C-alpha cells in the first residue's frame, strides 16, 4: 500500500533527497523547497538556476551549484552556507566527499573544497563531464573526453588516467571501491576494475544512461536510458562481463531515473511520462505514481527506505510513502 503527497513546485526539479526526516528539493528556479510533514518552506539559494545538486556524504545537507557561479550547502533547517564562488561561471557538476569535502566543476576546471576550507584546483584539456569521490579517501574521479582522470585531492600525487575513446558524461564508484563506471555520450556504460585497469563495456541502450544507482551492498548497478531499468551484476569475479543484466519495470516508455532502495533489493524507476514504479529484483512491481507532468527527473529514498521523494521536468514533486 502506498500514499502520495504531491506538490506543484512550478519549476524543474533538479534533485530530491532526504535530510533526516525532511524531504529537500532543488529547483531550476534557484530555490530549495523543504518538506517536513505538513510544513513546506522555500529557501532562496541561487540568483539563477540550480544546475547540479547532490546530497552530502554524511546525509546532513544538500550541495548545489548554479549558473550564478555559487556553490552552496543547505541543511534541513534551511541554513545556507556559500562555500565557494566562481563569478561568471556555470557550476554544472558537484559531488560530496568525506569529512565535508565538496568537488565542483565548470568547463575544464575541477576543484575540491576540503572540510577545513582549503581549495585544490585541477585543470583538464577538455570539459569536465562528471565527478565522483571514491568511497574512502579524497580520490576524485573526473569524467572527461576519452576517459577519466583520478585525482588525489588531498595530496600532491600526480593524477592517473583511465582511457577509453568517447565523451564520458557521468561517473560512479562501486560501494566497495573496486570498480569505476562512467556513462557515455554514445549511449553505453564503460567500467574499469581498478586493481588492474581491466575494461568493461555495457552497451545496448537506445538513449544516454544518465542516471546510475548502486543496489544495497553494491551487487548491481541500476541505470536509465532504456525502456526498462537495466541492472548490471557486479558480484561476479569479472563484474558484468559475459553476464546479462536484469531488466526491470519494462514498458514502452523510456526510463529517465533510477534509485536503488537503501536496505532491500528494490529499485525505484521513473519514466519519461512521469510514472514511477518500485520493482523488486525478482520482478514484483508496485505502482507508486501514475503518469503525468513530464519526465521524472529526481528520485531519492530516505534512509529507512519507507519514503521516496520525487520530482519531474514540469515542476511536480512530492513524497511517496510505502506502508
Any key phrases for this structure?
single chain; 323 residues; mainly beta; Methylamine Dehydrogenase, Chain H; 6-stranded antiparallel sheet
Q: How would you sum up this structure, described in words?
A:
WD repeats lie at residues 172-202. This protein has no helices and 30 strands. The protein has a domain at 206-322: YVTN repeat-like/Quinoprotein amine dehydrogenase (Methylamine Dehydrogenase, Chain H), CATH 2.130.10. It is mostly beta strands and 323 residues long. The protein is globular. The strands form 7 sheets. It has a 6-stranded antiparallel beta sheet, with no helix packed on it. A 4-stranded antiparallel beta sheet has the order 1-30-29-28, with no helix packed on it. A 4-stranded antiparallel beta sheet has the order 2-3-4-5, with no helix packed on it.
Layout of helices and strands:
Blueprint: E1 2-8, E2 13-19, E3 22-27, E4 31-36, E5 39-44, E6 50-55, E7 61-66, E8 70-75, E9 80-85, E10 93-96, E11 102-106, E12 109-113, E13 119-123, E14 130-133, E15 139-152, E16 160-173, E17 179-184, E18 188-193, E19 198-202, E20 212-214, E21 220-223, E22 229-233, E23 246-248, E24 255-260, E25 266-271, E26 276-280, E27 285-289, E28 296-301, E29 307-312, E30 316-322
Antiparallel strand pairs: 1-30, 2-3, 3-4, 4-5, 6-7, 7-8, 8-9, 10-11, 11-12, 12-13, 14-15, 15-16, 16-17, 17-18, 18-19, 20-21, 21-22, 22-23, 24-25, 25-26, 26-27, 28-29, 29-30
WD repeats: 172-202
Pfam families: WD40
Keywords: WD repeat
Amino acid at each position: 500500500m502506498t500514499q502520495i503527497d504531491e506538490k506543484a513546485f512550478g519549476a524543474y526539479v533538479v534533485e530530491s533527497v532526504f535530510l533526516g526526516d525532511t524531504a529537500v528539493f532543488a529547483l531550476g528556479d534557484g530555490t530549495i523547497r523543504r518538506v517536513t510533514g505538513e510544513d513546506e518552506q522555500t529557501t532562496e539559494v541561487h540568483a539563477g538556476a540550480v544546475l547540479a545538486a547532490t546530497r552530502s556524504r554524511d546525509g546532513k545537507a544538500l550541495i548545489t551549484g548554479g549558473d550564478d557561479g555559487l556553490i552552496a550547502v543547505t541543511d534541513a533547517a534551511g541554513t545556507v552556507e556559500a562555500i565557494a564562488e566562481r563569478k561568471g561561471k556555470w557550476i554544472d557538476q558537484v559531488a560530496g566527499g568525506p569529512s565535508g569535502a565538496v568537488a565542483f566543476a565548470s568547463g575544464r576546471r575541477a576543484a575540491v573544497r576540503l572540510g577545513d576550507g582549503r581549495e585544490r584546483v585541477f585543470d583538464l584539456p577538455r570539459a569536465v563531464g562528471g565527478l565522483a569521490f571514491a568511497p574512502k579517501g579524497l580520490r576524485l574521479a573526473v569524467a572527461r573526453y576519452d576517459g577519466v582522470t583520478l585525482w588525489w585531492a588531498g595530496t600532491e600525487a600526480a593524477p592517473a588516467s583511465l582511457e577509453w575513446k568517447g565523451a564520458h558524461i557521468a561517473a560512479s564508484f562501486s560501494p566497495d571501491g573496486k570498480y569505476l563506471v562512467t556513462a557515455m555520450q554514445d549511449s553505453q556504460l564503460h567500467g574499469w576494475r581498478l586493481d588492474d585497469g581491466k575494461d568493461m563495456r555495457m552497451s545496448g541502450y537506445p538513449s544516454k544512461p544518465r542516471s546510475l544507482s548502486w543496489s544495497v551492498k553494491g551487487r548491481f548497478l541500476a541505470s536509465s536510458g532504456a525502456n526498462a531499468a537495466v541492472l548490471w551484476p557486479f558480484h561476479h569475479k569479472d563484474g558484468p562481463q559475459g553476464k546479462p543484466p536484469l531488466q526491470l519495470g519494462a514498458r514502452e516508455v523510456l526510463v529517465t531515473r533510477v534509485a536503488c532502495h537503501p536496505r532491500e533489493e528494490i529499485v525505484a524507476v521513473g519514466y519519461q511520462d512521469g510514472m514511477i514504479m518500485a520493482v523488486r529484483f525478482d520482478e514484483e512491481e508496485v505502482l507508486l505514481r501514475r503518469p503525468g507532468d513530464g519526465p521524472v527527473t529526481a528520485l531519492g529514498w530516505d534512509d529507512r527506505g519507507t519514503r521516496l521523494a520525487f520530482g519531474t521536468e514540469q515542476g511536480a514533486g512530492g513524497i511517496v510513502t510505502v506502508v
